[in-house]
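SAMPLE LOG
Freezer: B-3
Tube label: C17
Construct: single chain, 211 aa
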Amino acid sequence: MFEPLLTDVEGFVRAHGPVAAGAIIFLESFGAPLPGESLLVLSGTLAARGEISLIALLVWAWCGAVLGDSVGFLVGRTLGRTLILHHGRRIGLTHERFAKVEAVFTRYGPIAVVFARFFDILRQLNGLVAGAAGMPFPRFLLFNVIGGFLWVGTWGLGAWYFAGHVSSLSDLAHRLGPWGIAAAVATALGAVGLVLLLARTVTSSVPTDRP
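STRUCTURE (predicted):
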């Protein structure tokens, strides 16, 4: 049923706009085999060309990501691990794939919810595993909202910016030289480290008792 989307994602987004991007991301967020991340990059590029609205894209993509993961969470909470694995084989959700995602959640806790979107498989099973594992929904929603914001901003806004500023970025890199580029990379890594530290701080402040 997803073959038309897989073969002509660009045409689908061109025809239906940012709402289509949000719908595809929504479906991918609770297990559907759809190219949500590449679609977001493509949509950001289309926005840079003025073919679709950037603001509408970011809003619909974020809503699709958050709502999709939330639906996955409710499915996981309702069905539980056993039923998900029993029926999941029909869509390629094997015990091994589920176990890998569970291991990540066990090790990193709610922080995994934030950064799961940046990794294949984790992105599709994020909500299902969190729900099946019994994570409280308010905590999941908080980190899901943060993760969706970072993911959409990184790929959607990032693609829009780079598509519209390729020549200026090349000029900037030439002006900065190797040392300037190295300093910029170090600054970016420091910012990422700060985000991780803040996320860990927020996690430690959230009660861990299950309802």
